[in-house]
Amino acid sequence: MKRYDVIVIGAGPAGLSAAVQAAEQGMSVIVFDENEKPGGQLFKQIHKFFGSKEHKAKVRGFRIGQQLLEEAGRAGVEVKLNAVVTGLYMEKEVVVKIGGAMEHFKGDSVIVATGAAEKMVHFEGWTLPGVIGAGAAQTMMNLHGIRPGRKVLMLGTGNVGLVVSYQLLQAGCEVTALADAAPTVGGYGVHAAKVARTGVPFYLSHTIVKAEGTDHVTGVTIARVDENFAFVPGTEKHFDVDTICLAVGLSPMAQLLKMAGCVMDERAGHDGTTPLCDENGATSVPGIYAVGDVSGIEEASSAMIEGRIAGLAAAAYLGFMDEKKCREAISCQKKALMSLRRGMFAPQNKGRKLMTTEEGIPLSEHLLKEGYVGDEEIGRFPGVRRSVGIHPVMECTQNIPCNPCQDACPHHCIRVGDDITALPQVDDTKKCVGCGLCVASCSGQAVFLLEENYAPGFAAVTIPYEFLPLPEKGEKGTGLGRRGEPLCEAEVVQVKTSGAFDKTNLVTLKIPGDMAMRVRFYRKEV
Amino acid sequence: MTDRTKDPGMFVPEPDDDRIICRCEEITKGEIRRAVHAGMFTLTEIRRFLRTGMGLCQGQTCGGMVRQIVAKELQVPPDTLEPATARAPMRPVEMWVLAREGGEEDA
Amino acid sequence: MEYRIREHPILGEIEETKKVRFTYDGKTMEGREGEPVAMALKAAGVQIHRYTRKKHEPRGIFCAIGRCTDCVMVVDGVPNVRTCVTPLKEGMRVETQYGISARPPEKEGK
């Protein structure tokens, strides 16, 4: 039986981060992953991540995956792919199916980073070809370059449902509608807003009655549900779609931990699906750690930090690092983790209905119920200001841990402050030069540049644009509002692309002056 | 602990009883509900009785839904049900692979 | 609209890997070497991978990462092969799976 100081199960963001950290302390490390390629879900994440610099904010997920693999390579981490862990025992023996053989390994410590599986819901016709998980859609289009369908209905408005809907649009699919049984949008408002402004309708308090079709999906019927999630008769709506995407949540894949005898977390507010861990990820079985989604569903940015902490803790546990040095290193990581676990979507706020931002501003009702901020609501947020000359308008209306806009501005026009969940503000004393770096840096695509006196009677708005074909200077099309409604003619007066923007192109539209605060998207068709 | 004295009452048919819940073993909602009325109160018992979650995917897809259905039938919150036992192999392994365990010379 | 993405706003031009030929229920089809068999089938418009054992219902791609096993087919004579994680090779023989075999069940007196 081969022995390692650390055996990591799962080569996703949490597992790889743990492995790198452990290897850097001089431990022998092996990572097992059942997939053909490492990286977990990171390589399917083509959007820019939230957070601040230390969390690799505004870097797209797949690039973070590439960086992590390079780090692992440099640290000398051995990653064994197509290696299916079939058993984990209390004595930290790991049984792995590799090719046609069952192999046994012994770890002096084991870090479990098996991630999560998609939850599912059932409805009439849910087994038909064409009903797929949202993760499947992401895998198909972002890893394999295959569109999952032509017309898609998305069930679920959590971040997965919202992000995958946007990615479907980017892949050239039509997203017919988003539906969610919950009464309010579950994910970040900025993710919802960038889908809504393309014209995709949101149906909250709605769920699927049935998938239609005999051999594969040819349509879907949704209907409104009441407070008890029972269908309200007469509210059915039919859509012609060929694909139904399910994004109704994730559940930790903790079977290996259970099998090893780790105590599961059944304290109040916990449902026993995650292991009971100390703040370093140590489970009740000495030497076994749990990190990433398997220890509680969070974003990949948090998973990477959790991984690093457990890697350090394992090093101290086995005497590869002295206690004091370890404590210092861990406290530094914890600071970064705590700054991500703040704001409206923090784990401690799960299930709570918030009415206002931390600044005391009432939240946008439209955003929660229809996916976009209403024209009459937008003015109350601190990033939305009118002024002479070109200036940024930041339609950031919820407290999420994110501040790349502040770092992006070379002239310090934008202030978030030390508390990275605060809503951004514009500093009127600093002069905006219209470089657009803030527009491209916003992971939520919520920053726009506005020049209200662009020409007599006309304003210019610069929008982030991540679709093909890219509009061309001089072409005329339609300016769309926040819910995708056609508002006016819009002339493309400038298109900026740059390496620094990382594929978030800047399109400047000339629009009638009274549309300055309303036009937020563009469509070529008139 | 599972309350063995619990009486789930009479089985009342529902319109969606023929809906597949366990996709691999093709077990319907009605079969799961009937199993509860036949005295299968834990997820492990349901699994042994009906084979829910014993197919190729090993319960990855239906686990949560079976829990919801059983809990509703017993009129208890889903998170109070004992979780199904986790045991090796956690993923499907072909018999010929298991048979080779113990070294090449024995094969 | 075709299923294959040629150019993507974030991922750029999708690299065209070597074309290979395979058969699907005897028909010759073309796919890209190394892509999952299920992707080559999807690109060719095939959605039904198998019919279930008990109820003979159609199934196709569901999770696309090898977990749910709904997309299994008979590949090169071997049943229960997860096509979403099996790389396509030149000359592969891919067949619809009925229950656990590549032969449709006898129609029962219908």
From TrEMBL, chain C:
Signal peptide range equals none
- Name any one GO molecular function: oxidoreductase activity
Name of this chain's protein: (2Fe-2S)-binding protein
Name the UniProt key words of this record, in alphabetical order: Oxidoreductase
Q: What organism is recorded for this protein?
A: Candidatus Anaerobutyricum stercoris
* A Pfam family annotated for this UniProt entry: Fer2_4
